[in-house]
Amino acid sequence: MKLIAFGMRKDEVGFAEEWAQANQIDVEITGDLLTTDTINQAKGFDGIIALQTIPYDDALFSEMQKMSIKVLSVRNVGVDNIDLVAAKKHNIMVTNVPAYSPNAIAEFSVTQLMQLLRKTPEFNLKLKANDYRWAPNISRELRSLTVGVIGTGRIGRVAMDIYKGFGAKVIAYDLHPKPELKEAGLYADSLDDLFEQADVITLHAPATKENEHMLNRDTFAKMKQNVLIVNTARGTLINTEDLIDALKSGQVGGAALDTYEFENPIFNHDLSHVDIEDPLFNELLGMTNVILTPHIAFYTETAVKNMVEIAFNSAQQFLTTGAVETEVK
Ligand code: COI
């Protein structure tokens, strides 16, 4: 069996080499992302391991089929950038890593909320201007707030536990409620009910066609004045233009965005010598009550190790047994 891993960063290479050594399997590693321009590097391999936020489309799967590649194992959890219908059509098994570290993302989202709440960006700006006054940047305490968690999968549930630890009132919404959370009375009656009650809304849902722009002009209007928004899930969950308007009007009091609707050309690229030509992004960058981070909630040693090992294990398992529990259905 021969595997090739695309889009490998330096911090992943060691884990991949250890895996190859331990399993005595030929592994080729490249930093290139998987596109129709780079796919030819996969000739002669049985499986591809990849991680990227750009699309895996029909053309790519068609090339894989021509090369007799059997499996694409992605090193991450989200699969919204994968054309699964095309994968099936071209007979390519797709696997993901459903739980590399829910804590990594949940902890980060809470961290970002704490920064918004305690006005860290504002105080940092004041500090740079030699202004050490407290007012007017007074804070609220989490124990006095209601946190609305949208999406109660693995990550959302860890976030709920952390917020409960802070003494916040936690309510949740999920299209598919979990029985144990339902029994504990943790779900709001509806999404609108959550919007009405929550002082903070934190997103932990996957991106689907149905929930695209679930936070928009109309839904912001249903929320409490000054609500805080945290998004470590997917940028497409929020209509960015509407968010900017809601931030300007004060309907939304602040936003911590680790994912952004149009992030692909920006996040995880060195743009230090380039002007970013994205007016929405530039507007967000200039807002003192917005914290932007480049899709780093996942980025911990534990998560990266698991992402690499589980993705390689999945490819190996599928190629040796013809089935794998991490198959994306
Ligand atoms: C995911 O695992 O889906 C993430 O959002 C992490 C990122 C590296 C794509």
UniProtKB/TrEMBL annotation:
What keywords were assigned to this record? NAD, Oxidoreductase
User: Start and end of every D-isomer specific 2-hydroxyacid dehydrogenase catalytic domain?
Assistant: 12-328
**Listed PROSITE patterns:** D_2_HYDROXYACID_DH_1, D_2_HYDROXYACID_DH_2, D_2_HYDROXYACID_DH_3
Q: Which InterPro entries match?
A: D-isomer_2_OHA_DH_cat_dom, D-isomer_DH_CS, D-isomer_DH_CS1, D-isomer_DH_NAD-bd, D-LDH-like, NAD(P)-bd_dom_sf
What's the superkingdom here?
Bacteria
- One short Pfam name that applies is 2-Hacid_dh_C
Residue ranges of the D-isomer specific 2-hydroxyacid dehydrogenase NAD-binding domain?
Answer: 111-297
Family under the similarity heading: Belongs to the D-isomer specific 2-hydroxyacid dehydrogenase family.
Q: What is this protein called?
A: D-2-hydroxyacid dehydrogenase
